[in-house]
Amino acid sequence: MCNGTLAGLIALAILLVTKRFRTTFGCGMVIRMAKHMTGWRKLCGLVAALAMAVPAAAQAPGSEGGFQGYMQVLAARARAQGVSEATISRVMPQLTFNARVIELDRTQPGGGPAPGPIPAFAPYRAKHVDAVRITQGRRQYEASATTIGSIERTYGVPGSILMAIWGNESNYGSYTGDFDLFRSLATLAYEGRRRELFAQEFIAALKMVDRGVPRGKMVGSWAGAFGNPQFLPSVYLRVARDGDGDGFADIWSSRADTLASIASYFRDAGWRRGEPWGVAVSVPDGLNRAALANRLASPRCGPVFQRHSRWLSMREWRALGLEPRGGAWPADSMQATLLEPDGPGRTAYLLTGNYRVILDYNCSNFYALSVGLLADAIRN
User: With the CA atoms of 223, 232, 166 and 251 taken in that order, what torsion angle do they form, in degrees rounded to the nearest 10?
Assistant: First the structure.
C-alpha cells in the first residue's frame, strides 16, 4: 500500500474522532470514503478500532443520530472480526438506542455513589434459598436424573450445583428477560462507560447468529445475559454445549443443554471433582481473627476476597476450635478460607477452591453462598 493511502486512512481515523466532522458528515461517510482507497479492507479494522476510542461524551449519548453513526463503526469492526455481511445487514439496520437500558445500568454498583455498609446475609439467603426454589430444584433434579448422571461423569460437577445455578439465574427458566440483546448491547457500547466489554459482546452475539442461532432467540436481560443460565454471548461461544445430541446448544429451552453448558463453564473455570464448595461452621469466641487476616490483594473482585481469611487446611481450622454445623469434616489436607458474612457469633463458612469457581460465575459472596446452600438443600 502506498504511503499516500496509509496517510489518508490515518487522517480519516482522526476525522472520525473529531466532533465537528462527525456532527457534519457522520461516521458512515468516513467509512464510505475509506472504501474508495486501495487496500481499505486491511486498515478498515484499524480505523474502526481508533473510532472505538472516542470518549462517550463526544458522541452525544442519547442522540439517535450519534447512535446510528456509531453503528457504522461497530459494523466495520464486526466485519474485521469475520462476521458475515448477511448477518450484519440482517441485524444492524433496525437497531435503535434504548434509553431504558442506560437508566438500568446507572442504578447498578459502580454507576452511582459509593455503597454503604455491607448488609446482612440472612435476608438475602431467605429470598434465594427459599422453600419454593428448593422444591422446584428437587423436582427438576428428579426429572433430569439420567442426564445429570451423564453430565457429572463427563464434567465432574455435581448436579445439585448445576441446579442451584439455574435456580438462582432464571428461577429454572421461568424468567430469562425480554430485552432485545442486540439493541441492549449496542446501546451499552455506545454509552461508553464499559465500551470495550459491550462492543465485544455485541460482536460475539453477531457471531452466534452466524453460527446458526435464530435471531428470535436473541432476547434476555437489559445487560446482555440470556437463556436459562444467563450467559453473555462470548460465554455462549466459549462453553455452550449440546447435551441432548440434536446438534444445537439450546440453553433457552433444553434442560440437557442448559445443565451441560453450566457444567462446561464450571470445568473451564477449574472445578475440582469430588471437592465440596464449603462447610458451615461455628467459630469459638476466642478466635484471633487478626492473625488470620488475608494480606493478599486480589486483582479481581478485591472487596469480595477482602472479607476472606488466609488459607489454612481443614486440620488447622479444626485445631483452632472450629466445628462443623452438621455433617463431617472434609479431608484434613483440603485448603479453605473463613468467611463470616454476618460477623462474629453468627454462622460462618469454610470455603474451598470450588467456592472460587462459583465466584467466577458471579463475583458476589452472597450469590456464591446462596448457590452452595441451595445445592445442599436440593441434594438433601
Answer: 120
Kindly tell me the burial class for residue 20, based on how many C-beta atoms sit within 10 Å of its own C-beta (0-12, 13-18, 19 or more): exposed
Rounded to the nearest angstrom, the gap between the alpha carbon of residue 155 and the centroid of all alpha carbons in its chain is 20
- Residues of the chain with confidence (pLDDT) below 70: 1-63, 109-116
Q: Which of 125, 109, 108, 173 is nearest to 368 (CA)?
A: 125
Comparing CA positions, the residue from 49, 271, 66, 250 lying closest to residue 159 is 271
Q: Rounded to whole angstroms, how far apart are CA atoms 196 and 50? A: 12
HSE (CB half, 13 Å, CA atoms) of 64?
5
Q: How far apart are CA 66 and CA 16, in angstroms?
A: 12
Domains of the chain: 3-97 (no CATH), 121-170 (no CATH), 179-269 (1.10.8.350), 278-351 (no CATH)
**Alpha carbons 74 and 54: distance in angstroms, whole number:** 12
Phi and psi (nearest 5°) for 309? -75, 180
- Residue 234's pLDDT is what? 98
Instruction: Give me the residue label for grid cell 440472612.
Output: 122
Ranges assigned E (strand) in 44-187:
179-180
Residue 297's pLDDT is: 83
Distance in angstroms (rounded) separating the CA atoms of residues 148 and 169 = 18
| Mean pLDDT for all residues in the chain | 86
pTM value is 0.83
Question: Which residues have a Cβ under 8 Å from the Cβ of 268 and sit 6 or more positions away?
Answer: 238, 239
CA separation for the pair 373, 279 (Å, rounded): 9
For every residue of 155-193, DSSP letters joined together read H---HHHHHHHHHHHHTTTT----EEHHHHHHHHHHH-T
